[in-house]
Amino acid sequence: MSAAEKVLKPDHRTADELGEMNARINCAGTKVNQLARRMNEAKLRKAPFCYSAESHVHLRELAHVITEITEPIHEMFRVRLANLDMEVTKALAQLLPAAAEHNRPLDDKR
Q1: What pLDDT is stored for residue 3 in this prediction?
Q2: With 0-12 CB in 10 A as exposed, 13-18 as middle and 19+ as buried, what is 95?
Q3: Assuming Cys at both sites, which of 10, 48, 62, 93 could form a disulfide with 14, CB separation 3.0 to 4.6 Å?
Q4: Contact 58, 31 (CB under 8 A)
Q5: Are 28 and 83 in contact (CB under 8 A)?
Q6: Are 14 and 80 within 8 A, CB to CB?
């Protein structure tokens, strides 16, 4: 079980980087949610909605954050996957000699 935990649990660096990215997305997303709420309230009141320059800045900010973090997330998980692949390969390599010995033919007199 501890071997599976090592493979499945994110390393501290990955967790820290994801936490920082999550904070940036939450900040920008909150602003966009406020904008959407104002738009929906205006729609319910059948009132015109004023799409201000500030509203546009908030939407552009969210798009920028998402665009900016996409590549680092992809690279972070590519590296993580390569490391996990090496861990699994090493673990399986240790099992192969034991498995080969256990599954040898009965008439083999080694």
Answers
A1: 55
A2: exposed
A3: 10
A4: yes
A5: no
A6: yes
Q: Sort 55 into a burial class: Cβ within 10 Å, 0-12 / 13-18 / 19+.
A: middle
The tens digit of pLDDT for each residue in 40-68 reads 998 899 988 888 888 888 888 888 888 88
Q: Any residues with CB less than 8 A from the CB of 1 and at least 6 apart, and which?
A: none
Position 7 scores a pLDDT of: 57
More reliable by pLDDT, 3 or 13: 13
CA distance linking residue 57 with residue 52, whole number of Å = 9
Q: Is 17:76 a contact under the CB 8 Å cutoff?
A: yes
Q: Are residues 76 and 82 in contact, defined by beta-carbon separation less than 8 angstroms? A: no
| Nearest alpha carbon to residue 21 among 77, 79, 80, 81 | 77
- Amino acid found at 69: I
Residue type, 70: T
> What is the domain partition of the chain in residue ranges?
2-101
